[in-house]
Write a structure and sequence with these properties.
Layout: E1 21-25, H1 31-39, E2 44-49, H2 52-65, E3 70-74, H3 77-83, E4 90-96, H4 114-123, E5 124-134, H5 137-148, E6 153-156, H6 168-175, E7 181-187
Parallel strand pairs: 1-2, 1-4, 2-3, 4-5
Antiparallel strand pairs: 5-7, 6-7
The structure holds S-adenosylmethionine (SAM).
Length: about 190
């Protein structure tokens, strides 16, 4: 699966990475990216997904809908922030229901940790926001601990006055009444420790 990443051109439409840009890491089949792009036509939405089949399906949908402000690339979340998006290039980074990797020996595979926070800090524009959402309480506690140990982010209210469509997993968990934990963090001027 991951080995197939190279089989998909890592292409982006010309000039796509322009403000105002929002990034959805682990965008799955892109429901959130597509709905946001439809809802906010003056903003650009970039999905990042490691599973190539999902990327291709989502691209087909974006093309079918004629959405010029949405795209999805095949890639890893952390690497994409570090290597593909210009520093300060994103206004919002969304991370919704990242894989929790519950076994202790697998925690190292989790996307959100101190290293990720440093990369997100570098990618966000001044005042930009990182929005984290998970159904996994231990992972959420680990996210909060990583944030507490880092500099450069301040919690802000989750409700920012915008209407957000449900992600695929959010909808699934809402249907079975599973609790969801949320954290919105504004990028502060200080570099993340
Ligand atoms: C649990 S699903 C959540 C999907 C979506 N964000 C939602 O809320 O419906 C996690 C998704 O992230 C993708 N993923 C996992 N780790 C990733 C990584 N390091 N970089 C990019 N995508 C990743 C998985 O392939 C999967 O599609």
């Amino acid at each position: 699966m991951d080995g197939a990443l190279t089989a998909v051109p890592a292409d982006l439409p010309p000039d796509f990475l322009r403000a105002p840009l929002e990034i959805d890491l682990g965008c799955h089949r892109g429901r959130f990216v597509v709905s946001m792009a439809e809802r906010y036509p003056d903003r650009r939405f970039l999905g990042v997904e490691r599973q190539v089949g999902r990327v291709l399906r989502c691209r087909a949908k974006i093309t079918r809908l004629g959405l010029g402000n949405a795209w999805v690339i095949a890639g890893e979340g952390l690497e994409t922030l570090r290597e593909r998006v210009p520093a300060g290039g994103a206004e919002v980074i969304h991370v919704s229901f990242p894989d929790p990797w519950p076994k202790r020996r697998h925690h190292v595979r989790r996307l959100v940790n101190a290293e990720f926070l440093r990369a997100a800090h570098g990618t966000l524009a001044a005042g930009g926001v990182l929005r984290l959402m998970t159904d996994d309480a231990p992972y959420f506690a680990a996210m909060e601990a990583a944030v507490a140990a880092s500099a450069g982010f301040a919690p802000v209210p989750w409700d920012d006055g915008r209407e957000y469509p449900e992600t695929e997993f959010q909808r699934k968990f809402a249907e079975i009444g599973k609790p969801v934990y949320r954290l919105a963090l504004r990028r502060e001027a200080t570099a993340s420790a």
